[in-house]
Amino acid sequence: MADGEGKTVNNGKRVHILVVTYPAQGHINPLLQFSKRLHHKGAAVTFVITKFLLKNSPAADRPPPFPVETISDDHDAGGFLSAVSIPDYHERLERVGSQTLRDLLRRLDDDGRRVDAVLYDGFMPWVLEVGKEWGVKTAVYFTQACAVNNIYFHVYRGEIKLPLAAEEEIKIGGIPPLTAADLPSFVKDVKSCPGFWDVVVNQFRNIEEADWLMCNSFYEQEKQVLEWMEKKWRMKTVGPNIPSMYADRQIDDDWEYGFNFFKPDGEVCRKWLDGHRKGSVVFVAFGSFSALSVEQMEELAWALAQTNSSFLWVVRASEVAKLPPKFAEATADKGLVVPWCLQLEVLSHESIGCFVTHSGWNSTLEALTIGVPMVAMPQWTDQTTNAKFVMDVWRTGIRALPDRTGIVRGTTIADCILKIMDDDEGKEIRRNAAIWGTLARQAVDRGGSSDRNIDEFLSQLASDLNI
Ligand code: UDP
What we know:
The longest helix is centred in the N-terminal third of the chain and has 25 residues, at 86-110. Helix 3 (86-110) packs across helix 7 (194-201) and helix 10 packs across helix 15. The chain is α/β, with parallel strands linked by helices. Helices cover 39% and strands 14% of the residues. The N and C termini lie close together (9 Å). Bound molecules: uridine-5'-diphosphate.
């Protein structure tokens, strides 16, 4: 018998899943949401983050409804930003993370909370090895799009000849032809960031051994990619994993992820947005990590000052110094600049007319689910490929293209905003955004494609464990 729907509870015994996250906001958020869903369906979940993050993140208004435990990345005092290099950080995360994960599994066992399965972020394939050693089931969860995983998988197998020439196109199963500009930045320029190149490519080093493979996406969204992948992979889509109140509303009061690296200005944004009419505001946010150049910030600032629309711009504290002098004061009659917001609450406010985004996968899924059209300004990693899909596959936005120096000019940004906000020109994109929003919400709703996959995972796990 289940608490929720899956067969995860029997005579008081519940399947206990240890969810191990990669220490980045864009990775923790979807795994938190997925964990809430497993919990809602009757599984016992223990959520694992690094010691540094647990100690240094502001308290959430709505913390997750399950225990949070820690492992160490060997940077307990300063986290990722205190690492001497990205490769060194990942080497220590794996080495010390594995040791402390073993300690945690042992401690939970001693406390009578034996773990039945570990579910982990694909960026940390070493968790599977620890799980196997411990004799538990293993499930890998990919936080990026299936298309992006498929590209990295081909790179891992040496099936893409790199680098691509400027005009060359590659064809990978189920994905529209891609030029170098559409590929993830680590693939377009393999030497650009060796510390992350290793991580994204090595996600596949042991996937054959995983009991389940899951992706934060939904079947209808990447149907062609999934149909092709089905021949080689057992990938199941379980997304979009965003707070339930913005999707299927099955989990009561689930309005927030419940874990922020930065303190959000919720009240300030809410009040300001309430004073604006429907569809009139441009929301601008570049996620938790992207850093724009000073020149790019100036171009974007110029574009926002020029358009007729009001704007709400998230500029993280580490980016503020790059704003043109007195920009916030000079544009106070039409704009609000905040260091961090509750992005879902903002996106779903009726005053929002479009989202200027770096096209991080979570931001993309959130806008798609809520039905907000996008101006895509990808910076690096998978964002370029996400932007390609937004523009050419789902057609819910426009990509603002950089010039030959790599900067997206203010005139280009203003032009894209105008196209989307304009009553006539933006009609088609707004219509597509509404259609995709409905499909996304249906996927996680009762009986939807992702909902069925989650039930199947839990039933199979319970049956394998004789629960
Ligand atoms: N986010 C937020 N408030 C902000 C900006 C971003 O809550 O002011 C959240 C956003 O909703 C998303 C995550 O931070 O869930 C960013 O993830 P994404 O994959 O879009 O980008 P990343 O930070 O990984 O580059």
